[in-house]
Amino acid sequence: MKKPEIQFIIFDLGNVLIDIYPQKAIDKFSRDCEAPPTVLKELYHSPLHLSFMRGELTPITFFERVREKYHCQLDFDTFLNHWRQIIGPTKSGMRELLINLKSQYSLILLSNTDQLHWEYVLETCSEIQFFDKSFLSFELGLLKPEAEIYYYLLEDLSCKAAECIFVDDTKENIDMAASIGFQTIHASHPEEVTRRLQEYLIE
User: Fold this and answer.
1) Does the predicted TM-score (pTM) go above 0.90?
2) Residues 145-171 pLDDT 10s
3) Domain check: are 80 and 164 in the same one?
4) In the listed set 45, 69, 85, which residue is the last one of a domain according to the structure?
């Protein structure tokens, strides 16, 4: 049976398009918060941050709840500076990969992210310009690996899952996408992503 023609290549943001450094933020917060680093380390994957990534909290509310939960003595501007430390630069080699793909495929971003991180990504990551559309958890009220976010994307793009290649560094996200019918690449380094894409796209 002939493989469906690929129309869309869908990228995750953190650890795929850009590097992320949660520990840098924890190191900053540890100077202004009474909670020990072992507790602060939980913040990035905490229910509180998940709610923020789902768009259930405003930036100010998220800041206030972090300050209260972790006993922090800091203003919003200081908090924002600390929180932005998580966002790193574009991965080496990713810009070249996107340029090569852009002439033949629609490039899509699908990310679990929050409003503050996304605003900073727009300021610092020029590679966002190569994407035709971004699907962001805080705007949709949905998170990977929930099936609904993948079905929402397919409906919005008016395409079939088999016409998409989904690239993500998290196995749970990959597994859900694969169960729906997406072609998937579980990788994070641009060289590995390139090699795996060639397996799909070069017959």
Assistant:
1) yes
2) 999 999 999 999 999 999 999 999 999
3) no
4) 85
